Amino acid sequence: MPVARREPQEPRVIAHVDMDCFYVQVEQRRNPALRGQPTAVVQYNDWKGGGLIAVSYEARGFGVKRSMRGDEAKRVCPGINLVQVPVARGKADLNLYRSAGSEVVAILASKGKCERASIDEVYLDLTDAAKEMLLQAPPDSPEQILMEAAKSNILGLPSDPNEKEKNVRAWLCRSDADYEDKLLACGAIIVAQLRIRVLEETQFTCSAGISHNKMLAKLVSGMHKPAQQTVVPSSSVQDFLASLPVKKMKQLGGKLGSSLQDDLGVETIGDLLSFTEEKLQEQYGVNTGTWLWKIARGISGEEVEDRLLPKSHGCGKTFPGPKALKNSASVKGWLDQLCEELSERIQSDLNQNKRIAQTLTLHARASKENERDSMKKFPSKSCPLRYGTGKIQEDAMKLFESGLHDFLESQNTGWSITSLSVTASKIFDIPSGTSSILRYIKGPSSSASPAIPNSSSVPEDPSLDNNVYVTPIHEEQCELSTSEKEDGKRYSAISAKQCSANEEKRISKKLPEVKGQSALHEKRKSDGLICSHPVGSSLEANRAEEHNVSAQGADRSSTNGGDEHSGSNAWMFNVEDIDPAVVEELPPEIQREIQGWIRPPKQPSTKRRGSTISSYFPPARS
Ligand code: TTP
């Protein structure tokens, strides 16, 4: 759920930079003959010519859209060049695009705090750079303004195209502007300089939005594309938001936006102004209500995170129509491949960036035989992540079996899987000087630490790392109940018996002061795997409701559940920990499902939710 954050007192200069038709540009750099040609990049999938995932602006001119398949694009634009996404392990290999994105990030990060928000977009906090420019070399002569900056689109300026450049130059060096606008003008010049550098050094064009906060910068970065930038002075915010359809805002694209339209008759962000903060809180809860009240006024305190690397890694694959997987052997075959790729990526993240991923999550999309219209979703499952391809494969299969067990609800029926993905999240930096990953995770006083290689000696070859444990308790955690194995069913749950005495001690140590910790402990013991569905569709969420535990609260608990670096939160999984860039890489069905998790609470809720960790969790299952 969106969370309202306090807007800083000092004005900020924030930019959102988004590459233009990014995968197409990467392919055009590889094959310059494609430049200026109608071109599209096609997903690895031969059905009807494959799905288009990126379309050049020339092809868009012919009416080609991303929603089309290759065959349809050819009908609309016979001269279109369709380029297949590179393929590895029988699925799309996005490494080429990822590293192209990294080239751009390296340039953009040179001027201030930089947050890589997806494979092709970043946020920049240019406040300090803009202040410095204002002090040392403020723009004061219209003639000296960089051409690229003079082409900016500035909301609220007269729209006469013949006068546009003159007006922009004048606005950028207005001496009577207030401090906020002067900073913004410097920000626009800095972004123009950065975009020129990106073009010169990578051959890629990008577009940008420049504003006082992330929300507004993101909203306008795509307003004038390709290769343009748009500036939002504070004086233009209300006019801009007045006509902005609610669905244009990322967080309102789903159920919350639909609820605003259907329940409150709100069509534009400006329409929200007619509701008091109390009314919005009553309808959507305290946080979301306040957030809505603030966005209607263009207020957003969200900070640019200092993060050049992805928040998580994910690999997924869809199996449409007749390709659906219908038995465990075929699921295992594909899961093994996805896990192999995931393992390589987290291993290289560890080697190159000294970062460790803590949580492994499996998402799937499934249907039951003879129940194709069933609304029941395959529950996403998480467990602590163990390094090593074999271990990840083993754990992912157990997560799958556990999810399938819940999905089938003990019915003896056939099933089919139409998409699968694995994600490694909760990634943190190993602090420099740490001699042992394990010691760091468990705390220096731990005497139970088995000897493991230190971070620098973690083997690069994933096939060699069978004995590398980042957290030592995972083996028990993912162990199957033999009784359930033996009863002939293919699907298993985690046995409470398998929790070792060490593990019990560890949990007790971690939660010494928490009232009701046994409930949390029991929950873990009985589940072993943490179900990540925060809302209604899953068994877990139903259980949460039965025990009067708000799904929103349960979700929040996983965010707040512990010290980032203590390792205790390795047990939690929160959809907010998944990098949007990764979500975009996952099969579309899974993307929709993840986006579906963000929905408004059904009941008005103004009361404070549980104040102890245990109150977020349902009592133990018997
Ligand atoms: P976008 O930034 O959404 O789009 P784009 O860069 O292709 O075009 P625009 O100029 O309109 O911003 O996506 C970035 C890349 O991510 C895109 O080039 C291909 C990939 N992508 C997918 O693989 N699947 C998807 O569903 C989307 C939306 C994008």
UniProtKB/TrEMBL annotation:
It holds the Pfam family IMS. Residues 444-467, 510-568, 593-622 are annotated as: Disordered. Its cofactor is Mg(2+); Mn(2+). It is found in: Nucleus. InterPro entries: DNA/RNA_pol_sf, DNA_pol_Y-fam_lit_finger_sf, DNA_pol_Y-fam_little_finger, DNA_polymerase_eta, Rev_trsase/Diguanyl_cyclase, UmuC. Keywords: DNA damage, DNA repair, Magnesium, Metal-binding, Nucleotidyltransferase, Nucleus, Transferase. GO terms for cellular component: nucleus; replication fork; site of double-strand break. GO terms for molecular function: damaged DNA binding; DNA-directed DNA polymerase activity; metal ion binding. This is DNA polymerase eta. The lineage of its organism: Eukaryota, Viridiplantae, Streptophyta, Embryophyta, Tracheophyta.
